[in-house]
Amino acid sequence: MDEQSKQRYHDIFTQADKRSRGFLYPQELKMLLETNGYSFHEEGLENLVEHICGEHKKVSFHKFLSMMNFLIEMHQLFLELDENGDENLSKAEFAHAIKKMKFELQKEQLDLMFQITDTNRNGLASFEEFVSTLLYLYNIKRVFESADTEGNGTLDTTEFYKFLPILKIKASKHDAQQALSQFDLDNDGELNFPEFVHFIFTIRDI
Ligand SMILES: [Ca+2]
Ligand SMILES: [Ca+2]
Ligand SMILES: [Ca+2]
Ligand SMILES: [Ca+2]
């Protein structure tokens, strides 16, 4: 980002930070993003803040710059993915996009993911909807990697069982085994990332 853009962002940040505390609260951030043409729904905004700031929810100027850089980068990518240039991703464009991000999801999971993405249900994924989903997928990936203590790219019964309490799910080892086999689509006795995504989507709806 060039100095001129930085200065411009500094000015709008200072304006949004009404009490000069040096950071923005989610509501202030939401308004600021809106004046810059980005309208995120609540969950999308939460994911965005978490991605940039971690658990710490206050957005400093430094974090805000990272956020704008991230959004600019994502928007560039979005324009490449939007093959017919209508500023939305159709389901087919969306499927290409997910593949390009190297999330190897199967059709069933893609359908579910598109449903979750298209929050205003117009059959298209807008830029904000797309970014929210991408951040959500990154979150799931992070969780998956932390659950995969052995680091071999799949969750076995023991790893899955130990992970369940993190989701506040109480289950015996036997229950865990059964749940795992329900989502183990390729029947190798372990959950790979797409299978795990499917599991997370399913419990999300409960
Ligand atoms: Ca399009
Ligand atoms: Ca939509
Ligand atoms: Ca493992
Ligand atoms: Ca499997």
From TrEMBL:
GO terms for molecular function: calcium ion binding. Residues 69-104, 105-140, 141-170, 171-206 form the EF-hand domain. InterPro entries: Ca-bind (IPR051581), EF-hand-dom_pair (IPR011992), EF_Hand_1_Ca_BS (IPR018247), EF_hand_dom (IPR002048). The keyword Methyltransferase does not apply. The keyword Metal-binding applies. SUPFAM superfamilies: EF-hand. Pfam families: EF-hand_7. Keywords: Calcium, Metal-binding, Repeat. It comes from the Eukaryota. This is Programmed cell death 6.
